[in-house]
Amino acid sequence: MIEELLAARGAGELAHPGGTLLAHLGRTRDALAAWGARPALQTAGLAHAAYGTDGFPHSLLSPHERPVLVDYIGVEAEAIVYAYCALDRAFSYPRLLTGIVRDRFTGTASQVDNGLLRDIVELTYANELDVMTQSPLLRRRHAAELRLRLTSWSAYASLPAVEALERL
């Protein structure tokens, strides 16, 4: 079970807004499920920080351990997790709607297809909205910037995700 692997790799001890990283990962998955995301995206939500992210650099697995994560969550969900973790945000966010992203692990820029682009956007909504909900301090500091970014990506997000942003 993926939760056991994440816990064994320290997710239950790593501090994160709202408690631990493991709790955040669960809430991210739950938001995606509530929004009607397909099972692979929900599973990716649960493991979305497995390799660390540009915003949360604590990795639970190295990118060299991708086969381990594939064994737990499957090829489709792991591909979403890798793309999300590898996203060089400073380079990719301004170009995201063009589908051009840069892998922060390899330094390689590439074009992602619309399906993966939608998954990255939806996962970003779920992740960031959870962080903002859990941390009033971060919400005060980053809400305006986050709202602009996510709103600009709303054509690639589900209606429930966009509505969750509006409520926050």
From TrEMBL:
It comes from the Bacteria. InterPro entries: DUF6817. Pfam families: DUF6817. Residues 6-89 form the DUF6817 domain. This is DUF6817 domain-containing protein. It comes from Actinokineospora terrae.
